[in-house]
Amino acid sequence: MIKLIASDMDGTLLNNKMGISPSNIAAIREAERRGIQFMVATGRGYLEAKPALDEAGISCAMITVNGAQVYNKEGRSLFTVGIESALAKQVMEILENNHIYYEIATTKGVFSVNHAQRIENVAGHIAASLPHLTYKMAIAMAAAHLELLHVQFVTDFQQLLDDPDIEILKFICFDMNGPKVLGPIGEKIGQIEHLTVTSSGQNNIEVNHANAQKGIAVKHVAKDLGIPMEEVMTIGDNFNDESMLRVAGVSFAMGNAEPEIKEIAKYVTSTNIENGVGEAIMRAINEDL
Questions:
Q1: Residue 180 burial (C-beta neighbours within 10 Å; 0-12, 13-18, 19+)
Q2: Which region, left, alpha or beta, applies to residue 230 given φ > 0 means left and ψ of -120 to 50 means alpha?
Q3: Comparing C-alpha atoms, which of 271, 267, 192 is closest to residue 233?
Q4: What is the pTM of this model?
Q5: Whether 225 contacts 201, CB under 8 Å
Q6: Residue 140 — pLDDT band, cuts 50, 70, 90?
Q7: Among 12, 27, 5, 22, which Cα is nearest to 256's?
Q8: Alpha-carbon distance 122 to 203, whole Å?
Q9: Mean pLDDT of the chain
Q10: Residue 105 contacts residue 68 (beta carbons within 8 Å)
Q11: Which of 37, 69, 158, 182 could serve as a FRET partner for 31 with CA atoms 20 to 30 Å apart?
Q12: What domains are there in the chain, each with its CATH number?
């Protein structure tokens, strides 16, 4: 029987309104009633992830920034895996030489240098996920969405490297041409020792320290709780979820997951707008997976 569930958020736990459905909440409550611990494992930072959980009344441990930071249920940071300044400078040079828009997730939140492009990239992601929307509607949703994400703006990313109180956790890189442009850049960055490149959508790549992966973080949490990996369940939809789907005894891909992720997971559930997380949790309970 599973004793720990780790779920991704965007495209997984969250629906198309960026919220957690009543069905998913009910399933999480049922799991907790049975003594199964629930946590999220997200590419979002702590401040980005917390509002949706608070709105749903869910208090849980959190793996954030793809595994770069882990928090306990009370919100206390357990450990951080950052990117050294020398490595960060190499990544920045590659991205800027290729004119790629990027943001930096840090221990002090997410930073951008271009407000208009930030909205444009989020709008493009929303429009791709919800094709029935007009682009104007997507822009409006993006602007509202950013208000919740606590994105901060600086004139130059060098400010972050120069601040001794800030640790860089992740680069989030966007291009509307998707893999055609980002693929070669991701391969180049991936050749830098101690870095790993994943993705949470067709139009982005994410760069973390090689030790900052969801799978590594899930294993760390499970070990601290004394739970064997055979009794851990993970749920995800994209490539930044791959590592945790591979290490868990029970793994579910969302119905809207990338085809390669469905191949990796042991089971497939419904989509994120069809309460797929709740369905997976109840199936695991009812079938004693």
A1: exposed
A2: alpha
A3: 267
A4: 0.88
A5: no
A6: low
A7: 12
A8: 10
A9: 91
A10: yes
A11: 69
A12: 4-81+212-287 (3.40.50.1000), 85-209 (3.30.1240.10)
Q: Which of 198, 203, 206 is nearest to 240 (CA)?
A: 198
CA 283, CA 12: separation in Å to the nearest integer? 16
Kind and range of the H or E run holding 186 = helix 179-190
Q: If you search the block for the tokens 């919740």, which residue do you land on?
A: 148
Asked whether the predicted pLDDT for residue 133 surpasses 80, the reply is: no
What is the token pair recorded at 284? Answer: 């695991």
Say yes or no to pLDDT of 80 above 80: yes
Give the CA dihedral 237, 135, 50, 28, nearest 10 degrees.
-50
The label of the residue with tokens 């064997």 reads 228
Helix (H) or strand (E) holding 33: helix 22-33
In tens, the pLDDT along 248-280 reads 999 999 999 999 999 999 999 999 999 999 999
Alpha-carbon distance of 20 to 232, in angstroms, equals 22
The token pair that represents 259 in the structure block: 């085809």
Q: What is the mean pLDDT of residues 43-49?
A: 92
**Angle of helix 135-149 versus helix 46-56 axis, rounded to 10:** 100
Structure tokens given for 128: 């791709």
